[in-house]
Amino acid sequence: MFVQSLLPLLSVVLLLSSGASAACTNPRVRKNWHKLTLEEKEDWTRSIACLSQKPGNPNIIPQVRPFNVPPPSPNASAYDDHVYLHMDLYPAVSFKRLLAFLSVHFNGQFLFWHRWYTFQLEEEMRNKCGYKGSMPFWKWDDDAKDVEGSEIFTDVDPITGIGGWGNPDNDWTVEEGALGAKSGFSLNYPIKHSLRRNFSNQPWIPFEGIPFWPDPHAKANETFTPEKIEALIDGFRGDFTGFQAEFEGWDKSHFAVHSVIGGDATGQCPAGSPDWCQQATHWSSNEPMFFLHHSMVDRIFWKWQNKYPENKEAFGGGTLPVMQYFNNEYMVRFATGLSPPMTRRSAMPTLNIYKTRTIQELFHIENDYLCYTYED
Ligand SMILES: [Cu+2]
User: Fold this and answer.
1) Is the dihedral of CA 216, 219, 221, 222 positive or negative?
2) Is the residue at 37 inside a domain?
3) Distance 68 CA to ligand 1 centre (A)
4) 157-214 per-position pLDDT tens digit
5) Separation of 208 CA from ligand 1 center, angstroms?
6) Quick one: signal sequence residues (predicted)?
7) CATH code of the domain containing 219
């Protein structure tokens, strides 16, 4: 009798100590893209295309306006708005460098902001376009051996395939597949264009001669092998900033996956862009695969948070990224930003498009607000 009455209490205690919230009893489960049914893939591609047809928010308020980012476009779609957010909050490499504290890269909020950003697109897909699923992840370590030939890029089914490499004779435009030019999927930033991809496993060769670049000849896929990812999750015990630095650095897996896809994912300027356009990963989220990539980044972060008890609440990093100093020694030493320190009360910048959230609200994915988990 006594044992029975204790059981519910015990399960609540266990639930809370596992990081889950008592209110989050039925988390949405994020799945591996390769394991989705055709219906689930279709629902995803349809919802992304649907957002690109919905009107944008006229009340968007840019916060940084780096010199190489255009003003909001009256033609922007709800999908473009989401891209604009990422463009605006890139570290300001301009006379506005003091606003770099609003950056969402190379400082303490990188992992949390991108967790929120990916979740928010999932919410938009569900609320505006009737999407039924959660954000899938691209398990790129499985595909590291042969990214170019992996199924995610070779599947050009016009309804369910998100693959297709760009045509070199047509500005690297992806022509086939559910998000290719023939589908009508189009983007408005930095100028109106179709999705572009430009595969290279040595994507940093053009950066040869840039003094702050670590190794222009590095092979991108060697940074995200299953062994490297396992070591990342198992390493940096209790060391949040060490973990983030090993994940986010120029020659590390997060950036390498962006770089290997090329085109929009690497922020290459579309043909015919004005002079202010400079290659940077500002508009990398034009590439819808960005969200499958960042779902995977978040999944690795979640695995790391749950790997050892001392990882669970580990947190650190500053607010001011040092990227604008173009100095690799600084980038390595201050990979997660300079003082003032980021705190859990720090609010995520959202450009007046969405409700602001704090890092605390995003700390664990199985909490009240996020309430999702990963299938493995
Ligand atoms: Cu980003």
Assistant:
1) negative
2) yes
3) 16
4) 999 999 999 999 999 999 999 999 999 999 999 999 999 999 999 999 988 988 778 8
5) 23
6) 1-22
7) 1.10.1280.10
